[in-house]
Amino acid sequence: MEKENLRLNQDLERRTFLKVLIMALNALITVALAVPGLGYILTPLFRKDEQTWVKVGRVEDSPQGSFTKAVFRYISASGYVREEKSAFVWMRQEEDGQLTAFSPKCTHMGCNVSWSGRNDRFECPCHGGMYDERGNVIDGPPPRPLQRFETKVENDSIFVKRTEDG
Ligand code: FES
After folding, report:
1. pTM of the model
2. 157 membership: H or E segment, kind and range
3. Pairing of strands 68-78, 148-154
4. Quick one: 74 and 136 in the same domain?
5. Ligand 1 centroid to 88 CA: how many Å?
6. What does the pLDDT look like over 47-95, one tens digit per residue?
């Protein structure tokens, strides 16, 4: 009788051990499958647009002296959403050939500013903000100068380094 009890106890211990082992293996497999899956699902939520160079035109089409709109298209990636958008910068070629490009977004509340060649300044239609040809605030509520973009020329094409903000 005692021998039989001992065997029963050993069987129970073996079964308990095997149950725990199987549960541990299941947990390990679940974690191994879940981590890459969660990473794949959650990564886009933390991804932000990087700074990118966008082509905005050709040097021969960029006038000297007056700012013109240089329209471009780009892919916006935010979270799971990727869409093609269009935007523009105010651009001109300086007398020395350098290119100047400004964001059209007013630094007050983000309205698009317009270049007034007659007054040699950028004017914001929303609250009367004004900027000089260097993008500096000359009147109104804007707290900062217009955002200036870095530019480069490759094979006669003009590129502007933009960010999601700009
Ligand atoms: S948004 Fe331009 S002055 Fe307010």
Report:
1. 0.69
2. strand 157-162
3. unpaired
4. yes
5. 18
6. 665 568 889 888 887 778 789 999 988 877 777 788 888 899 999 999 8
In terms of domains, do 72 and 146 share one? yes
DSSP one-letter code for 65: S
**How many domains are contained in the chain?**
2
Q: Which domain holds residue 147?
A: 52-162
Q: Cα(162) to centroid of ligand 1, in Å?
A: 21
Tell the residue number behind the tokens 């947990």, with chain if given: 27
Question: Counting atoms of ligand 1 from 1, which one is nearest the CA of 128?
Answer: 3
Rounded mean pLDDT of the chain?
86
* Tally: H helices and E strands in the chain: 1, 10
Q: Is 135 left (phi over 0), alpha (psi -120 to 50) or beta?
A: left
Same domain, 83 and 27: no
Q: CATH number, domain at 121?
A: 2.102.10.10
Do 42 and 117 lie in one domain? The reply is no
Q: Is the CB of 104 under 6 A from ligand 1?
A: no
